[in-house]
Design goal:
Number of strands: 0
Largest sheet: none
Low-confidence stretches: none
Radius of gyration: 14 Å
Structural class: mainly alpha
Distance between the termini: 22 Å
């Protein structure tokens, strides 16, 4: 990972932590694990959700955070 990429990643992580988003995501993951989903299934769901959000943002359905 380049230094620039690492800096952006750290910045995003701090922003999520400041908005208490991480706690919600972790709680969601715990609930999915409790329901028996494997980590690779959970990761797939999050990738799918990110793809859906990306598509909706491009279509103007969701306001971009940038």
């Amino acid at each position: 990972m380049s230094n620039n990429h690492a800096a952006v990643h750290d910045s995003c992580r701090r922003q999520l932590a400041d908005a208490d988003c991480v706690a919600s995501i972790v709680d969601c993951i715990r609930r999915m694990r409790a329901e028996g989903l494997a980590d690779n299934e959970i990761a797939g769901l999050f990738r799918h959700a990110a793809d859906e959000l990306n598509a909706a943002t491009k279509d103007g359905q969701v306001e971009s955070a940038a």
